[in-house]
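Quick note —
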Amino acid sequence: MRIDLHTHSTASDGTDTPAELVANAAAVGLDVVALTDHDTVGGHAEATAALPEGLTLVTGAELSCRVDGISLHMLAYLFDPSEPELARERELVRDDRVPRAQAMVRMLQELDVPVTWEQVARIAGDGSVGRPHVATALVELGVVDTVSDAFTPAWLGNGGRAYADKHELDPFDAIRLVKAAGGVTVFAHPLAVKRGAVVPESVIARLAAAGLDGIEVDHMDHDEPTRARLRGLAAELGLLPTGSSDYHGSRKTVRLGEYTTDPEIYGEITRRATGAFPVPGAGGPVPA
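Predicted structure written out below.
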């Protein structure tokens, strides 16, 4: 089985619609794909309706969190999307995305970058606006070569010259809320130092003690020594090690299924979940 547990669609900051994403996942030979848009479940219905036969969809979200002044992302899988407290927190984060992106545009303008809010809004379309949309505007303007190049202290990286805070969950609250909604939590790209400051291993240990289920080990932003370090940490703390592409369509160079999760780990994730269940494809068109 080929299992990719971290992807994004146009419901947040990817470039594939949810329907296109599941079709593309089937086309590259994935057996399981998780749709984990930022702080939203808005793409789940479309992805489910378009799901090709032979592909299983794991519903999820990537929750924006902050601890000790450091931003981090928490992947939440197979939770009940109607659970009111978790739904309210997702809405608070989404509502803060527009003023946050507008603040970043203003800071870039103060740095003499000719970006406009109209440009960023056009790039975001109907998606939940975020830093990747601002980063794409910088690429369009020739300020940086790639979206990843914008996620540095020089521009939009955590604490960078044009970085603005937004409402973010405390990760310990996120774990509690996802658990209460029957879901499973995995710390996304925990040591992606190129994105900015990362939490120390002592915080990961505290998260594990609070009920964190896993950590994303195999990821494009982790080099081989980092992956080995995280695999050892997962074993030490009793966490599930996952692998995922963090696919954003054409917005990033990583390919669907470039990094995957072991089937036994996937099986354990599904065994722990009670809020929702993986959806087997039976209705969508099979890609040519």
